[in-house]
């Protein structure tokens, strides 16, 4: 539960989930929805619906990205059909309004784990690039970029072996995560401060 200004919300933002910044707002996934934090009002907006992923119910994984600084994209993978990813792009996005268009559906043949990396889309070429940690053999992970496109197009590029992070306090092995991508476009516009 999150409490802001004595208001209780019946949703939570998990710390391991990726968020994105778009048009001066931050967007976070919650269970079945997403939420916008509006920095101008310093408050959370109402919950917004994720795209209707063919009426799947149950556990699913989502990850956000941006197209330029105009649109929000969401990559979706359902727990019960883990070899298929779907990506939708917003037609309209704001703190309290959203509409979606389906961008790409790809049968990957294996689990992609959208929560473990990041992704980007090229609307003109109709492709998506998903960065993941890929296990090739026992104990060895590689930072990998998977490129998905229309009509079954697929290409995988192994970037490098994921370096092992030494941590004597943790019983689990930790590896450097895959590359993180961003569609951030720098601006020479200066912000006015009071």
UniProtKB/TrEMBL annotation:
Superkingdom of source: Eukaryota
UniProt cross-references to InterPro entries, sorted A to Z: F-box-assoc_dom_typ1, F-box-assoc_interact_dom
Residues of the F-box associated beta-propeller type domain: 6-190
Protein name: BnaAnng07490D protein
Lineage: Eukaryota, Viridiplantae, Streptophyta, Embryophyta, Tracheophyta
Gene: BnaAnng07490D
């Amino acid at each position: 539960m999150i409490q802001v200004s004595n208001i209780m919300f019946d949703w939570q933002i998990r710390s391991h989930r990726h968020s994105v910044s778009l048009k001066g707002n931050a967007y976070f996934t919650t269970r079945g929805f997403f939420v916008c934090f509006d920095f101008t009002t310093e408050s959370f907006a109402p919950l917004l619906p994720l795209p209707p992923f063919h009426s799947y119910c149950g556990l699913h994984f989502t990850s956000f990205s941006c197209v330029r600084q105009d649109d929000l994209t969401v990559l979706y993978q359902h727990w019960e059909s883990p070899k298929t990813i779907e990506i939708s792009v917003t037609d309209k996005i704001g703190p309290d309004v959203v509409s979606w268009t389906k961008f790409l559906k790809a049968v990957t043949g294996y689990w992609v784990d959208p929560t473990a990396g990041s992704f980007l889309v090229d609307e003109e070429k109709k492709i998506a690039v998903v960065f993941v940690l890929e296990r090739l053999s026992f104990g060895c992970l590689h930072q990998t970029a998977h490129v998905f496109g229309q009509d079954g197009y697929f290409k995988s590029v192994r970037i490098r072996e994921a370096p092992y992070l030494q941590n004597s306090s943790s019983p689990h092995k930790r590896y450097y995560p895959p590359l993180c991508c961003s569609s951030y476009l720098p601006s020479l516009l200066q912000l006015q401060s009071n």
